[in-house]
Amino acid sequence: MDPVQWRLLPLLVLLASFIFYFYVHNSSKLPHTDCSLLRHSHYFLTSKRIVTRQGIISGAVEVKNGYIVAIIKGEDFHENSKADQILDYKEAVLMPGLIDVHAHLDDPGRTDWEGFPSGTKAAAAGGVTTLIDMPLNSFPSTVSAQTLRLKIEAAANNIYVDVGFWGGLVPENAFNRSSLEALLNAGALGLKSFMCPSGINDFPMTNASHIKEGLAVLAKYRRPLLVHAEIQQDSGIYSEDGADNPRSYSTYLKTRPPSWEEAAISELLTVSKDTRTGASAEGAHLHIVHLSDAGSSLQLLRSAKNDGDSVTVETCPHYLAFSAEEIQDGDTRFKCAPPIRDVANKEMLWKALLDGDIDMLSSDHSPTVPELKLLSEGDFLRAWGGISSLQFILPVTWSYGRNYGATFEQLAMWWSERPAKLAGQELKGAIAVGKHADIAIWEPSVEFEINDDLPVYVKHPSISAYFGSKLSGKVLATFVRGNLVYKEGKHAPAACGAPILAR
């Protein structure tokens, strides 16, 4: 090295040190990727209504590199950071992002029905930060390690929120322990089965024997089994000779009476006792999806919980928002299984939810192409069943729930805390230090109509039962792992949600 280079060396070192210091010191001001509409990775969110496990506080949530690093009460929060690092949401509610444990995104194989990009954009627009995707309605169904890998590949770079996956329990794999273990080892968060025909050819129904075997395997992994609890029975109350009008919702309602749910749950509870402390399947957990019957079925579940069975139950916003009496002839947007029941049943569901007998909520978002809903024919018996709802579950729950005295803390429990526990997601489900910065910000008092003037991010808005409704609770912003993925009608440029795999 010549003398000139030696003289320049200290200056070069000093310059390098300055660049390094400047970069590190100001890293929170650099655009980290196209994953976020926000340029910072270190910032404060302030509000007078932050929903925490200790109650609602006024103050700030400090976010750094995707995690919540501090929660500061208002009287302790001093604006000691630069102004462009503070996002003040004033009176808006900050709550943990919603976790929807029951969504059909139909990807791969039926992306004309929904798909990961459109479904997760809808989720983000609705304050949902985590989806757990069901193993059927996509093609092929997720019933093996190989088919789960197809899901993971389809999700890569195509999801705007975090997405996990349930695997399927079907007769083909129920008695094949190595096949089920391979599926769980590949990252399935748990298993799902049907006790009646699912409507999907490669996802046949199971019985109590299959479910018993599934619980035995799940015990080792301490993961849940989710069950569609209806058993098809010959009720003898539907006339095949045309006497019943297929355009009438009451005709469809007769074909799936509450006794179907009661029969399935009765059978399930003969094996759920295996999940008790000290029993053969201790560590496994049974979860009843989309409960519709608030009568005998719910009584059976109360008794099982009291006896020590490891069992939980969810219901859905459409069972809490609608009643059979208000569904018009031919309006097949409202067809789902189990069906929406009468107004008295709806009132009992609300009471059960508020009393804690129903543990959590899910969307059961189950879209399809409009042609399969037979909207022009209005035939409830032939139309595809499923409520398309993903973007609106928060405002729907709030709009109806506030009339029953539902609180922000209860919304967080039903939509965040308990779903996180079911899915085994310890870093999600609450605004707490050390958790992922998954946060929904919304205005409870702002009303809006779901019509052609409102940006609707679900793929086929015309099939949503909520189209034409007026709701309260507008989502302003959605953060996923600290990334601002949605803000007042705009999504982040890149789909940077993370696939969630059990380990």
Report on this model:
The chain is an alpha/beta fold and 503 residues long. The strands form three sheets. Strands 1, 2, 3, 4, 5, 15, 16, 17 and 18 form a nine-stranded mixed beta sheet that branches. It has a six-stranded parallel beta sheet with strand order 9-10-11-12-13-14. A four-stranded parallel beta sheet has the order 6-7-8-19. Strand 10, helix 6 and strand 11 form a beta-alpha-beta unit. The longest helix has 23 residues. It is globular, with a radius of gyration of 24 Å.
The residue-averaged pLDDT reads 92
Shape: globular
**Largest sheet descriptor:** 9 strands, mixed
| Assembly of the depicted chains | single chain
Q: Secondary structure elements and their pairing?
A:
Blueprint: H1 3-25, E1 42-52, E2 55-64, E3 67-73, E4 86-88, E5 93-96, E6 98-103, H2 116-125, E7 128-133, H3 145-155, E8 162-165, E9 167-168, H4 171-174, H5 177-185, E10 191-194, H6 208-221, E11 224-228, H7 249-255, H8 258-272, E12 285-288, H9 296-306, E13 311-315, H10 317-321, H11 343-355, E14 360-361, H12 370-373, H13 393-401, H14 408-422, E15 439-449, E16 470-480, E17 483-487, E18 490-491, E19 499-500
Parallel strand pairs: 1-4, 1-5, 6-7, 7-8, 8-19, 9-10, 10-11, 11-12, 12-13, 13-14
Antiparallel strand pairs: 1-2, 2-3, 5-15, 15-16, 16-17, 17-18
Helix pairs in contact: 5-6, 6-8, 8-9
